[in-house]
Amino acid sequence: MPKVRWGVLGTANIATGKVIPAMRRGSFTEVVAIASRELDRVRRFAAALKIPKAYGSYEELLADPEIEAVYNPLPNHLHVPWSIRAAEAGKHVLCEKPIALSVAECQTLIDARDRTGVKIGEAFMVRTHPQWIRAREIVRSGEIGELRSIQAAFSYFNRDAANIRNVPEWGGGALMDIGCYPIQIARFLFEQEPVSAVGRFQRDPEFKIDRLTSAILDFPSGHCVFTCSTQMVPYQKVQILGTKARIEMEIPFNAPPDRPTRLFVDTGVDLFGGGRRTEEFPVCDQYTIQGDLFSKAVREGGEVPTPLEDSIRNMAVIEMLGIGV
To answer: Taking the model in full, what pTM does it have?
Structure first.
């Protein structure tokens, strides 16, 4: 199967540091072009990343007939506008999360996809990592009994005024940037949609973004409780609790590409780990897997890893929490 030829919009850290190197190792992906509004800057990145073409505008990249698919890691408020422009240029689109700033905006992207006939998906790479596939298998198997609660924490520290994550009008703040992950994995594991949700937010007095968000999602069969923050110690953990056992995800979201990952299943027989077993997963890169699965969907048909129908439901939960701008 020939590789899908990809172009990248912008030089965001997630693209240049993680996604592009990972996609270059893929079996079905080939990154052939990158664009930025600063031509000298993008030429340096293209040379360092061994990308053949560097464009001084997004428009030039979208006009290149060789490019079949576009990866969009632009700031959140530019996700939908440039994804629509890519679709209208006949390109398939993999767009970073959160894919939109509202349910209504996400719907415009669905309309563009249906109108143009291209594939568009959200880059929730965690859904493709073997540790999360296995966690859902364990839940489905009944080994932990009935799933009752998911508890998650995700945080890092960033008070850089120039950082896009600290601009509320651009979709900044903890809930949009990282709170979307606990929402996604809760829906992924419960395989339901929450019927209600409540959130509490603490704002940064200068930036006005939510620097600390805590939430309870009420699913038909249980709860997800999570805290996320852009101004706390770097940390991430997920506990998946059932009536018979629990699953602990050691590094749930930023799974390393250079070492194995682990999850733990514990029956709770004692408080010292007597009922705990470890499952280890070989070294892999979730961004490589995501790119290859998306490219296979382009070549072979079928659905992309995170379709827009899922994206709009995730966004509906974010709106339910009532963050506002």
So the answer is: 0.96
Contacts for 187 with CB less than 8 Å, ≥ 6 apart? 193, 194, 310, 313, 314, 317
Q: Rounded to 5 degrees, what angle do the CA atoms 321, 19, 256 make? A: 80
Please write down the long-range contacts of 79-85, taking CB distance under 8 Å and 24 or more positions apart: 80/105, 80/106, 80/108, 80/109, 82/9, 82/58, 83/109, 83/112, 83/120, 84/108, 84/109, 84/112, 85/58
What are 7-40's pLDDT values in tens digits?
Answer: 999 999 999 999 999 999 999 999 999 999 999 9
Find tokens 């240049």 and name the residue.
16
User: DSSP secondary-structure letter at 176?
Assistant: I
The Cα 58–Cα 220 span in angstroms is 44
DSSP, res 8: E
Residue 272 corresponds to which tokens in the numbers above? Answer: 């010292």
